[in-house]
Write a structure and sequence with these properties.
Blueprint lengths: L1 H10 L6 H8 L6 E4 L22 E3 L6 E4 L6 H8 L3 E3 L5 H7 L6 E4 L6 H10 L4 E6 L2 H14 L4 E5 L12 E7 L18 H4 L1 H21 E11 L8 H7 L10 E3 L11 E2 L3 E2 L2 E2 L8 E3 L1 H4 L4 E8 L24 E2 L7 H4 L3 H4 L3 E3 L2 E3 L5 H4 L2 H4 L5 E2 L1 E2 L12 H7 L7 E3 L5 H5 L8 E2 L8 E6 L2 E8 L5 E3 L4 E2 L2 E2 H7 L6
Parallel strand pairs: 5-6, 5-8, 6-7, 8-9, 21-23
Antiparallel strand pairs: 1-3, 1-4, 2-3, 7-19, 9-15, 10-15, 11-14, 12-13, 14-15, 16-17, 17-18, 18-20, 21-22, 23-24, 24-25, 26-27
Helix pairs in contact: 3-17, 8-9
The structure holds S-adenosylmethionine (SAM).
Protein backbone atom coordinates (compact mmCIF):
# COMPACT_ATOMS: atom_id res chain seq x y z
CA UNK A 1 0.00 0.00 0.00
CA UNK A 2 3.06 2.26 0.04
CA UNK A 3 2.38 3.68 -3.42
CA UNK A 4 -1.20 4.54 -2.43
CA UNK A 5 -0.04 6.41 0.67
CA UNK A 6 2.46 8.26 -1.47
CA UNK A 7 -0.29 9.24 -3.92
CA UNK A 8 -2.47 10.68 -1.15
CA UNK A 9 0.49 12.43 0.42
CA UNK A 10 1.63 13.92 -2.89
CA UNK A 11 -1.74 15.48 -3.64
CA UNK A 12 -2.65 16.31 -0.03
CA UNK A 13 -2.33 20.08 -0.54
CA UNK A 14 -4.10 20.36 -3.87
CA UNK A 15 -6.98 17.88 -3.64
CA UNK A 16 -9.16 19.92 -1.29
CA UNK A 17 -9.48 17.33 1.51
CA UNK A 18 -6.94 14.54 1.91
CA UNK A 19 -9.14 12.30 4.07
CA UNK A 20 -12.06 12.43 1.64
CA UNK A 21 -9.70 11.99 -1.33
CA UNK A 22 -8.00 9.02 0.29
CA UNK A 23 -11.31 7.31 1.11
CA UNK A 24 -12.76 7.94 -2.36
CA UNK A 25 -9.73 6.42 -4.13
CA UNK A 26 -10.44 2.98 -2.64
CA UNK A 27 -14.26 3.02 -2.90
CA UNK A 28 -15.88 1.09 -5.75
CA UNK A 29 -17.03 3.30 -8.61
CA UNK A 30 -20.78 3.56 -9.35
CA UNK A 31 -21.70 2.19 -12.77
CA UNK A 32 -22.75 4.88 -15.23
CA UNK A 33 -24.20 4.60 -18.71
CA UNK A 34 -25.75 6.89 -21.28
CA UNK A 35 -28.61 6.32 -23.64
CA UNK A 36 -27.52 6.05 -27.24
CA UNK A 37 -31.12 6.44 -28.43
CA UNK A 38 -31.42 10.00 -27.13
CA UNK A 39 -31.30 12.59 -29.90
CA UNK A 40 -28.99 15.14 -28.27
CA UNK A 41 -25.62 14.26 -26.79
CA UNK A 42 -24.21 17.73 -26.54
CA UNK A 43 -26.09 18.53 -23.37
CA UNK A 44 -27.97 21.40 -24.99
CA UNK A 45 -31.33 19.71 -25.17
CA UNK A 46 -32.60 19.13 -21.64
CA UNK A 47 -35.93 17.82 -22.95
CA UNK A 48 -34.24 14.93 -24.74
CA UNK A 49 -34.34 12.83 -21.60
CA UNK A 50 -37.97 13.03 -20.78
CA UNK A 51 -39.12 10.09 -22.88
CA UNK A 52 -41.19 7.30 -21.37
CA UNK A 53 -38.56 4.56 -21.69
CA UNK A 54 -36.16 5.35 -18.84
CA UNK A 55 -36.26 2.32 -16.53
CA UNK A 56 -36.47 2.62 -12.75
CA UNK A 57 -32.93 1.36 -12.14
CA UNK A 58 -31.45 4.32 -14.05
CA UNK A 59 -30.98 7.46 -11.95
CA UNK A 60 -30.27 10.60 -14.02
CA UNK A 61 -26.89 12.32 -13.72
CA UNK A 62 -27.99 15.95 -13.33
CA UNK A 63 -25.29 17.58 -15.45
CA UNK A 64 -25.27 15.33 -18.53
CA UNK A 65 -28.33 14.81 -20.70
CA UNK A 66 -29.05 11.13 -21.27
CA UNK A 67 -26.54 9.80 -18.69
CA UNK A 68 -27.51 7.73 -15.65
CA UNK A 69 -26.13 5.86 -12.70
CA UNK A 70 -27.29 2.27 -12.87
CA UNK A 71 -28.50 1.81 -9.35
CA UNK A 72 -28.21 -1.94 -8.82
CA UNK A 73 -25.16 -3.94 -7.82
CA UNK A 74 -25.34 -6.07 -10.91
CA UNK A 75 -26.99 -4.70 -14.02
CA UNK A 76 -30.48 -6.15 -14.64
CA UNK A 77 -31.09 -8.41 -17.65
CA UNK A 78 -33.23 -5.65 -19.14
CA UNK A 79 -30.22 -3.31 -19.10
CA UNK A 80 -27.93 -5.94 -20.58
CA UNK A 81 -30.37 -6.68 -23.42
CA UNK A 82 -30.68 -3.00 -24.26
CA UNK A 83 -26.92 -2.58 -23.98
CA UNK A 84 -26.43 -5.35 -26.55
CA UNK A 85 -28.99 -3.66 -28.78
CA UNK A 86 -27.03 -0.43 -28.73
CA UNK A 87 -29.46 1.58 -26.60
CA UNK A 88 -27.00 2.03 -23.73
CA UNK A 89 -23.31 2.75 -23.62
CA UNK A 90 -21.33 2.21 -20.42
CA UNK A 91 -18.84 4.99 -19.64
CA UNK A 92 -17.34 6.37 -16.46
CA UNK A 93 -19.07 9.59 -15.35
CA UNK A 94 -15.82 11.59 -15.04
CA UNK A 95 -14.86 10.77 -18.64
CA UNK A 96 -18.07 12.38 -19.90
CA UNK A 97 -16.62 15.78 -19.04
CA UNK A 98 -14.31 15.98 -22.08
CA UNK A 99 -16.93 15.84 -24.84
CA UNK A 100 -19.40 17.81 -22.72
CA UNK A 101 -16.98 20.73 -22.50
CA UNK A 102 -15.84 20.39 -26.11
CA UNK A 103 -19.54 20.83 -27.05
CA UNK A 104 -19.68 19.37 -30.59
CA UNK A 105 -22.54 20.47 -32.87
CA UNK A 106 -24.33 18.64 -35.68
CA UNK A 107 -22.24 18.76 -38.86
CA UNK A 108 -18.87 19.24 -37.15
CA UNK A 109 -15.79 17.42 -38.45
CA UNK A 110 -13.91 16.10 -35.44
CA UNK A 111 -10.56 14.42 -34.95
CA UNK A 112 -10.48 12.06 -31.97
CA UNK A 113 -6.70 11.81 -31.83
CA UNK A 114 -6.31 9.07 -29.19
CA UNK A 115 -9.60 7.32 -29.77
CA UNK A 116 -9.39 3.73 -28.59
CA UNK A 117 -11.40 2.05 -27.11
CA UNK A 118 -13.83 4.61 -28.53
CA UNK A 119 -16.08 5.76 -25.71
CA UNK A 120 -15.67 9.41 -26.54
CA UNK A 121 -15.71 8.61 -30.28
CA UNK A 122 -19.22 7.29 -29.74
CA UNK A 123 -20.29 10.42 -27.87
CA UNK A 124 -18.82 12.61 -30.60
CA UNK A 125 -20.37 10.61 -33.43
CA UNK A 126 -23.85 10.89 -31.96
CA UNK A 127 -23.43 14.61 -31.33
CA UNK A 128 -22.20 15.53 -34.85
CA UNK A 129 -24.84 13.36 -36.57
CA UNK A 130 -25.02 12.16 -40.18
CA UNK A 131 -23.78 15.41 -41.73
CA UNK A 132 -20.77 15.45 -39.41
CA UNK A 133 -17.80 13.10 -39.25
CA UNK A 134 -15.41 11.74 -36.67
CA UNK A 135 -11.92 10.52 -37.51
CA UNK A 136 -11.05 8.04 -34.76
CA UNK A 137 -7.27 7.71 -34.76
CA UNK A 138 -5.08 5.69 -32.45
CA UNK A 139 -1.53 4.43 -32.56
CA UNK A 140 -2.66 0.95 -31.56
CA UNK A 141 -4.27 -1.11 -34.31
CA UNK A 142 -5.45 -3.72 -31.81
CA UNK A 143 -7.20 -1.13 -29.66
CA UNK A 144 -8.85 0.41 -32.74
CA UNK A 145 -10.57 -2.95 -33.26
CA UNK A 146 -12.58 -2.21 -30.12
CA UNK A 147 -13.68 1.10 -31.65
CA UNK A 148 -15.20 -0.85 -34.56
CA UNK A 149 -16.95 -3.20 -32.12
CA UNK A 150 -18.58 -0.19 -30.46
CA UNK A 151 -19.48 1.36 -33.83
CA UNK A 152 -21.17 -1.90 -34.85
CA UNK A 153 -23.15 -2.14 -31.62
CA UNK A 154 -24.27 1.49 -31.70
CA UNK A 155 -24.81 1.56 -35.49
CA UNK A 156 -22.42 4.46 -36.11
CA UNK A 157 -21.88 5.18 -39.81
CA UNK A 158 -20.13 8.54 -39.43
CA UNK A 159 -16.78 7.36 -38.04
CA UNK A 160 -13.55 6.59 -39.91
CA UNK A 161 -10.95 4.56 -38.04
CA UNK A 162 -7.31 5.23 -38.75
CA UNK A 163 -4.08 3.82 -37.34
CA UNK A 164 -1.93 6.92 -36.91
CA UNK A 165 0.50 8.60 -34.59
CA UNK A 166 -1.37 11.65 -33.34
CA UNK A 167 1.92 13.49 -33.02
CA UNK A 168 2.52 13.30 -36.78
CA UNK A 169 -0.97 13.16 -38.22
CA UNK A 170 -1.55 12.76 -41.99
CA UNK A 171 -3.86 15.73 -42.61
CA UNK A 172 -3.28 19.33 -43.70
CA UNK A 173 -3.30 22.32 -41.36
CA UNK A 174 -6.70 23.67 -40.24
CA UNK A 175 -8.64 20.54 -41.25
CA UNK A 176 -10.94 19.94 -38.28
CA UNK A 177 -13.59 21.96 -36.48
CA UNK A 178 -12.75 20.20 -33.23
CA UNK A 179 -9.93 17.99 -31.96
CA UNK A 180 -10.10 15.81 -28.87
CA UNK A 181 -6.74 14.90 -27.35
CA UNK A 182 -7.68 12.30 -24.73
CA UNK A 183 -4.03 11.74 -24.02
CA UNK A 184 -2.28 8.55 -22.90
CA UNK A 185 -1.47 9.30 -19.26
CA UNK A 186 -0.60 7.76 -15.91
CA UNK A 187 -4.36 7.17 -15.38
CA UNK A 188 -4.27 7.76 -11.62
CA UNK A 189 -7.87 8.96 -11.76
CA UNK A 190 -9.08 5.50 -12.83
CA UNK A 191 -7.89 3.91 -9.58
CA UNK A 192 -11.44 3.23 -8.41
CA UNK A 193 -12.00 1.04 -11.49
CA UNK A 194 -8.45 -0.31 -11.56
CA UNK A 195 -7.28 -0.63 -7.92
CA UNK A 196 -3.97 -2.17 -9.12
CA UNK A 197 -2.88 1.36 -9.98
CA UNK A 198 -2.69 2.19 -6.28
CA UNK A 199 0.11 -0.38 -5.87
CA UNK A 200 2.03 0.57 -8.99
CA UNK A 201 4.87 2.72 -7.66
CA UNK A 202 6.47 3.08 -11.09
CA UNK A 203 3.29 4.42 -12.72
CA UNK A 204 2.66 6.81 -9.83
CA UNK A 205 6.28 8.03 -9.75
CA UNK A 206 7.20 11.58 -10.79
CA UNK A 207 9.69 10.28 -13.37
CA UNK A 208 6.84 8.61 -15.25
CA UNK A 209 4.76 11.80 -15.18
CA UNK A 210 7.66 13.80 -16.65
CA UNK A 211 8.21 11.29 -19.46
CA UNK A 212 4.54 11.30 -20.36
CA UNK A 213 4.51 15.09 -20.38
CA UNK A 214 6.83 15.20 -23.40
CA UNK A 215 4.63 12.83 -25.41
CA UNK A 216 1.49 14.74 -24.43
CA UNK A 217 2.96 18.11 -25.47
CA UNK A 218 3.77 16.62 -28.87
CA UNK A 219 0.14 15.50 -29.34
CA UNK A 220 -1.33 18.82 -28.25
CA UNK A 221 1.01 20.78 -30.54
CA UNK A 222 -0.10 18.66 -33.49
CA UNK A 223 -3.74 19.21 -32.53
CA UNK A 224 -3.07 22.96 -32.68
CA UNK A 225 -1.87 22.57 -36.26
CA UNK A 226 -4.86 20.46 -37.30
CA UNK A 227 -7.73 22.49 -35.85
CA UNK A 228 -9.09 25.35 -37.94
CA UNK A 229 -8.90 28.97 -36.76
CA UNK A 230 -11.79 29.51 -34.37
CA UNK A 231 -12.03 25.75 -33.78
CA UNK A 232 -11.59 24.12 -30.36
CA UNK A 233 -9.39 21.45 -28.82
CA UNK A 234 -10.18 19.52 -25.66
CA UNK A 235 -7.03 18.37 -23.92
CA UNK A 236 -8.08 15.70 -21.42
CA UNK A 237 -6.48 13.14 -19.11
CA UNK A 238 -7.68 10.81 -16.39
CA UNK A 239 -4.81 11.62 -14.05
CA UNK A 240 -4.28 13.94 -11.09
CA UNK A 241 -0.68 14.64 -12.12
CA UNK A 242 -0.09 18.41 -12.62
CA UNK A 243 2.88 17.67 -14.91
CA UNK A 244 0.55 15.87 -17.34
CA UNK A 245 -2.26 18.41 -17.01
CA UNK A 246 -1.48 22.06 -16.29
CA UNK A 247 2.19 21.40 -17.21
CA UNK A 248 1.33 20.21 -20.73
CA UNK A 249 -1.08 23.04 -21.48
CA UNK A 250 1.37 25.54 -20.03
CA UNK A 251 4.19 24.21 -22.24
CA UNK A 252 2.05 24.46 -25.37
CA UNK A 253 1.11 28.03 -24.45
CA UNK A 254 4.83 28.78 -24.38
CA UNK A 255 5.42 29.17 -20.63
CA UNK A 256 8.81 27.43 -20.93
CA UNK A 257 9.72 28.87 -24.34
CA UNK A 258 9.29 27.00 -27.61
CA UNK A 259 7.51 28.03 -30.78
CA UNK A 260 4.03 29.57 -30.30
CA UNK A 261 1.12 27.49 -31.63
CA UNK A 262 -1.63 30.13 -31.70
CA UNK A 263 -3.90 28.68 -29.02
CA UNK A 264 -5.67 30.42 -26.15
CA UNK A 265 -7.48 28.83 -23.23
CA UNK A 266 -11.25 29.19 -23.55
CA UNK A 267 -13.27 30.30 -20.55
CA UNK A 268 -15.01 27.26 -19.09
CA UNK A 269 -18.78 26.85 -19.01
CA UNK A 270 -20.42 26.46 -15.63
CA UNK A 271 -21.90 23.03 -15.20
CA UNK A 272 -24.80 22.96 -12.76
CA UNK A 273 -24.75 19.84 -10.59
CA UNK A 274 -21.02 19.12 -10.89
CA UNK A 275 -18.26 20.31 -8.54
CA UNK A 276 -15.18 21.26 -10.58
CA UNK A 277 -11.97 22.89 -9.41
CA UNK A 278 -9.80 25.30 -11.41
CA UNK A 279 -6.42 24.44 -12.89
CA UNK A 280 -3.48 24.84 -10.53
CA UNK A 281 -1.28 27.96 -10.68
CA UNK A 282 1.89 26.06 -9.73
CA UNK A 283 3.26 22.72 -8.62
CA UNK A 284 6.45 21.70 -6.85
CA UNK A 285 8.16 25.00 -7.64
CA UNK A 286 7.02 25.28 -11.26
CA UNK A 287 4.75 28.23 -12.09
CA UNK A 288 2.25 27.42 -14.86
CA UNK A 289 0.87 29.78 -17.51
CA UNK A 290 -1.71 32.01 -15.80
CA UNK A 291 -4.52 30.92 -18.15
CA UNK A 292 -4.42 27.28 -17.10
CA UNK A 293 -6.61 28.33 -14.18
CA UNK A 294 -9.47 28.08 -16.70
CA UNK A 295 -8.86 24.35 -17.04
CA UNK A 296 -11.09 22.12 -14.93
CA UNK A 297 -10.22 19.33 -12.47
CA UNK A 298 -12.60 16.66 -11.29
CA UNK A 299 -11.52 15.02 -8.01
CA UNK A 300 -13.09 11.67 -7.03
CA UNK A 301 -14.41 12.82 -3.65
CA UNK A 302 -16.18 15.93 -4.99
CA UNK A 303 -18.82 14.09 -7.03
CA UNK A 304 -18.23 10.39 -6.21
CA UNK A 305 -16.62 9.82 -9.64
CA UNK A 306 -13.18 9.02 -11.01
CA UNK A 307 -10.56 11.76 -11.47
CA UNK A 308 -10.32 13.85 -14.63
CA UNK A 309 -8.78 16.98 -16.15
CA UNK A 310 -10.01 18.96 -19.17
CA UNK A 311 -8.76 22.15 -20.74
CA UNK A 312 -10.56 23.69 -23.75
CA UNK A 313 -8.28 25.61 -26.10
CA UNK A 314 -9.32 27.73 -29.02
CA UNK A 315 -7.22 28.41 -32.11
CA UNK A 316 -6.65 32.09 -32.65
CA UNK A 317 -8.07 33.45 -35.85
CA UNK A 318 -5.41 34.03 -38.49
CA UNK A 319 -7.52 36.89 -39.89
CA UNK A 320 -8.09 35.45 -43.34
CA UNK A 321 -10.53 32.68 -42.50
CA UNK A 322 -13.52 34.38 -40.93
CA UNK A 323 -14.39 34.56 -37.28
CA UNK A 324 -15.50 31.28 -35.89
CA UNK A 325 -17.45 29.99 -38.89
CA UNK A 326 -16.39 26.70 -40.43
CA UNK A 327 -13.25 27.14 -42.49
CA UNK A 328 -10.91 24.95 -44.42
CA UNK A 329 -13.48 22.16 -44.92
CA UNK A 330 -12.27 20.03 -47.78
CA UNK A 331 -9.36 22.33 -48.48
CA UNK A 332 -7.09 19.36 -49.05
CA UNK A 333 -8.83 18.21 -52.18
CA UNK A 334 -12.12 19.97 -52.78
CA UNK A 335 -15.31 19.34 -50.87
CA UNK A 336 -16.30 15.94 -52.22
CA UNK A 337 -18.69 13.34 -50.90
CA UNK A 338 -16.95 10.07 -50.19
CA UNK A 339 -18.21 6.96 -51.95
CA UNK A 340 -21.15 6.24 -54.20
CA UNK A 341 -24.90 6.72 -53.84
CA UNK A 342 -27.04 3.63 -53.18
CA UNK A 343 -29.28 2.39 -56.02
CA UNK A 344 -32.79 1.32 -54.99
CA UNK A 345 -32.93 -1.09 -57.99
CA UNK A 346 -29.79 -2.97 -56.98
CA UNK A 347 -29.40 -5.77 -54.45
CA UNK A 348 -29.97 -5.94 -51.54
CA UNK A 349 -32.11 -2.80 -51.57
CA UNK A 350 -34.58 -4.01 -54.20
CA UNK A 351 -35.35 -7.13 -52.13
CA UNK A 352 -35.70 -5.19 -48.91
CA UNK A 353 -37.87 -2.53 -50.56
CA UNK A 354 -35.86 0.50 -49.49
CA UNK A 355 -36.63 3.53 -51.67
CA UNK A 356 -34.28 6.25 -52.88
CA UNK A 357 -35.28 8.67 -50.12
CA UNK A 358 -34.40 6.07 -47.46
CA UNK A 359 -31.14 5.20 -49.19
CA UNK A 360 -30.01 8.84 -49.30
CA UNK A 361 -29.14 8.38 -45.60
CA UNK A 362 -25.98 6.47 -46.57
CA UNK A 363 -23.28 6.11 -49.19
CA UNK A 364 -20.96 3.20 -49.97
CA UNK A 365 -17.20 3.29 -49.53
CA UNK A 366 -15.30 0.06 -50.28
CA UNK A 367 -18.22 -2.18 -49.33
CA UNK A 368 -19.07 -0.16 -46.24
CA UNK A 369 -22.10 1.91 -45.35
CA UNK A 370 -21.17 5.48 -44.41
CA UNK A 371 -23.02 8.68 -43.54
CA UNK A 372 -23.11 11.51 -46.10
CA UNK A 373 -20.94 13.73 -43.93
CA UNK A 374 -18.06 11.30 -43.85
CA UNK A 375 -15.89 12.95 -46.51
CA UNK A 376 -12.63 11.60 -45.18
CA UNK A 377 -11.03 11.41 -48.61
CA UNK A 378 -11.21 15.19 -48.68
CA UNK A 379 -9.63 15.70 -45.31
CA UNK A 380 -6.82 13.17 -45.08
CA UNK A 381 -3.52 13.11 -46.87
CA UNK A 382 -3.94 10.86 -49.97
CA UNK A 383 -1.03 8.76 -48.74
CA UNK A 384 -3.01 7.93 -45.61
CA UNK A 385 -5.97 6.74 -47.66
CA UNK A 386 -3.82 3.82 -48.79
CA UNK A 387 -2.79 2.67 -45.35
CA UNK A 388 -4.44 -0.58 -44.39
CA UNK A 389 -5.60 0.85 -41.10
CA UNK A 390 -8.27 3.09 -42.66
CA UNK A 391 -11.89 2.00 -42.64
CA UNK A 392 -15.13 3.90 -42.45
CA UNK A 393 -18.64 3.15 -41.22
CA UNK A 394 -20.12 -0.34 -41.15
CA UNK A 395 -19.46 -3.36 -43.36
CA UNK A 396 -22.52 -4.14 -45.54
CA UNK A 397 -22.15 -7.84 -46.35
CA UNK A 398 -20.96 -10.63 -44.09
CA UNK A 399 -17.71 -11.97 -45.63
CA UNK A 400 -18.06 -15.28 -43.75
CA UNK A 401 -21.24 -16.43 -45.51
CA UNK A 402 -21.75 -17.42 -49.15
CA UNK A 403 -25.31 -16.07 -49.47
CA UNK A 404 -24.60 -12.29 -49.68
CA UNK A 405 -26.02 -11.89 -46.23
CA UNK A 406 -26.03 -8.49 -44.56
CA UNK A 407 -23.93 -8.08 -41.45
CA UNK A 408 -25.83 -7.77 -38.19
CA UNK A 409 -24.70 -4.16 -37.88
CA UNK A 410 -25.92 -3.24 -41.37
CA UNK A 411 -29.23 -5.07 -40.82
CA UNK A 412 -29.76 -3.10 -37.62
CA UNK A 413 -29.14 0.24 -39.36
CA UNK A 414 -31.17 -0.28 -42.56
CA UNK A 415 -33.80 -2.61 -41.04
CA UNK A 416 -36.20 0.04 -39.72
CA UNK A 417 -36.75 1.28 -43.31
CA UNK A 418 -37.23 -2.13 -44.99
CA UNK A 419 -40.65 -2.93 -46.50
CA UNK A 420 -39.88 -6.58 -47.25
CA UNK A 421 -37.77 -9.36 -45.81
CA UNK A 422 -38.59 -8.61 -42.19
CA UNK A 423 -40.23 -10.41 -39.29
CA UNK A 424 -41.61 -8.83 -36.15
CA UNK A 425 -41.14 -10.25 -32.67
CA UNK A 426 -42.69 -9.09 -29.38
CA UNK A 427 -40.76 -7.32 -26.58
CA UNK A 428 -41.11 -10.42 -24.36
CA UNK A 429 -39.24 -12.44 -27.04
CA UNK A 430 -36.26 -10.10 -27.12
CA UNK A 431 -34.02 -11.99 -24.71
CA UNK A 432 -34.82 -15.35 -26.37
CA UNK A 433 -33.82 -13.85 -29.70
CA UNK A 434 -30.53 -12.54 -28.30
CA UNK A 435 -29.82 -15.91 -26.71
CA UNK A 436 -30.18 -17.62 -30.10
CA UNK A 437 -33.40 -19.52 -29.34
CA UNK A 438 -36.17 -20.43 -31.80
CA UNK A 439 -39.10 -18.02 -31.78
CA UNK A 440 -42.59 -17.95 -33.18
CA UNK A 441 -42.65 -14.54 -34.92
CA UNK A 442 -45.61 -12.23 -34.39
CA UNK A 443 -45.63 -10.78 -37.90
CA UNK A 444 -43.99 -11.54 -41.22
CA UNK A 445 -43.65 -9.02 -44.07
CA UNK A 446 -45.23 -10.09 -47.41
CA UNK A 447 -42.03 -11.17 -49.14
CA UNK A 448 -40.37 -12.76 -46.14
CA UNK A 449 -41.50 -16.38 -46.73
CA UNK A 450 -39.43 -16.36 -49.95
CA UNK A 451 -36.38 -14.81 -48.31
CA UNK A 452 -34.68 -17.25 -45.96
CA UNK A 453 -32.54 -14.72 -44.07
CA UNK A 454 -34.71 -11.91 -42.74
CA UNK A 455 -34.27 -8.78 -40.65
CA UNK A 456 -35.78 -9.25 -37.19
CA UNK A 457 -37.57 -6.25 -35.76
CA UNK A 458 -39.28 -5.39 -32.52
CA UNK A 459 -41.52 -2.34 -32.18
CA UNK A 460 -39.98 -0.72 -35.26
CA UNK A 461 -36.33 -1.21 -34.22
CA UNK A 462 -34.19 -3.72 -36.12
CA UNK A 463 -32.39 -6.22 -33.86
CA UNK A 464 -30.39 -8.33 -36.30
CA UNK A 465 -30.92 -11.29 -38.60
CA UNK A 466 -32.90 -14.52 -38.42
CA UNK A 467 -33.78 -17.46 -40.68
CA UNK A 468 -37.37 -18.48 -41.40
CA UNK A 469 -37.82 -22.23 -41.17
CA UNK A 470 -40.29 -24.49 -42.98
CA UNK A 471 -42.37 -24.86 -39.79
CA UNK A 472 -42.86 -21.08 -39.58
CA UNK A 473 -40.47 -20.68 -36.63
CA UNK A 474 -37.69 -18.14 -36.65
CA UNK A 475 -34.11 -19.25 -36.03
CA UNK A 476 -32.13 -16.47 -34.39
CA UNK A 477 -28.90 -15.53 -36.15
CA UNK A 478 -27.85 -13.06 -33.48
CA UNK A 479 -24.06 -13.36 -32.99
CA UNK A 480 -22.77 -15.24 -29.93
CA UNK A 481 -20.25 -12.49 -29.31
CA UNK A 482 -21.52 -8.96 -29.80
CA UNK A 483 -20.32 -5.59 -28.60
CA UNK A 484 -17.16 -7.34 -27.42
CA UNK A 485 -19.04 -9.47 -24.89
CA UNK A 486 -20.26 -13.05 -24.71
CA UNK A 487 -24.03 -12.70 -25.19
CA UNK A 488 -24.99 -15.84 -23.20
CA UNK A 489 -22.78 -14.90 -20.30
CA UNK A 490 -23.93 -11.29 -20.23
CA UNK A 491 -27.63 -12.20 -20.20
CA UNK A 492 -27.39 -15.23 -17.92
CA UNK A 493 -24.92 -13.83 -15.42
CA UNK A 494 -25.26 -10.07 -15.95
CA UNK A 495 -21.59 -9.95 -16.78
CA UNK A 496 -20.29 -7.59 -19.43
CA UNK A 497 -16.61 -8.41 -19.07
CA UNK A 498 -15.20 -8.22 -22.61
CA UNK A 499 -14.28 -11.57 -24.16
C1 LIG B 1 -6.78 7.47 -22.55
S1 LIG B 1 -6.73 6.37 -23.89
C2 LIG B 1 -8.04 7.01 -24.89
C3 LIG B 1 -9.44 6.66 -24.41
C4 LIG B 1 -10.50 6.95 -25.45
N1 LIG B 1 -10.44 8.34 -25.88
C5 LIG B 1 -11.89 6.64 -24.96
O1 LIG B 1 -12.59 7.55 -24.51
O2 LIG B 1 -12.32 5.48 -25.09
C6 LIG B 1 -5.30 6.86 -24.75
C7 LIG B 1 -5.10 6.21 -26.11
O3 LIG B 1 -4.01 6.89 -26.74
C8 LIG B 1 -3.38 5.98 -27.60
N2 LIG B 1 -2.07 6.57 -27.97
C9 LIG B 1 -0.92 6.59 -27.26
N3 LIG B 1 0.03 7.28 -27.92
C10 LIG B 1 -0.55 7.71 -29.07
C11 LIG B 1 -0.09 8.47 -30.18
N4 LIG B 1 1.16 8.93 -30.25
N5 LIG B 1 -0.95 8.71 -31.19
C12 LIG B 1 -2.22 8.24 -31.15
N6 LIG B 1 -2.70 7.52 -30.12
C13 LIG B 1 -1.88 7.26 -29.10
C14 LIG B 1 -3.33 4.70 -26.81
O4 LIG B 1 -3.19 3.58 -27.68
C15 LIG B 1 -4.70 4.73 -26.10
O5 LIG B 1 -5.63 3.99 -26.83
Amino acid sequence: MAAYSLLVDTYRDICGGAAAFSAACVRALPMTAWRADVASHSGTDPGADSGPHVPGYAVPIPWRTGAYRISTDSAPVDFMAHYLLGRWHIQEEAALLAVHLLAPSPGDHVLDMCAAPGNKTAELALAVGPEGAVIAADRSRARLGVVQTTMNRLGLTNVTRLVADGGDFPAPDNTFDLVLVDAPCSAEGTCRRHPDILHDAERLGRANHSTLRGAQVRLLREAARLVRPGGRIAYATCTFSPEENEGVVSDVLGARGGRPVGLRVALPRDIAGLVLRPGLPSWQGERFHADVRHARRLWPHDNDTGGFFVCILEKEDAGSQGTGGRAGRGSAGGSIRAGSALDANALPWSILGLDSADLARWRMVRGRLVSPGLAWRATLDPAAAHTTGVSSGLRLFNPKTSDSRLTTEAARVVGPFAQNGTVEIAPDQLVDYLLGREIEPRGVSPAAPHIPVVIVRCQGAALGLGRMQADGLLESLFPRTWGGVDVQRSLNRNDITPV
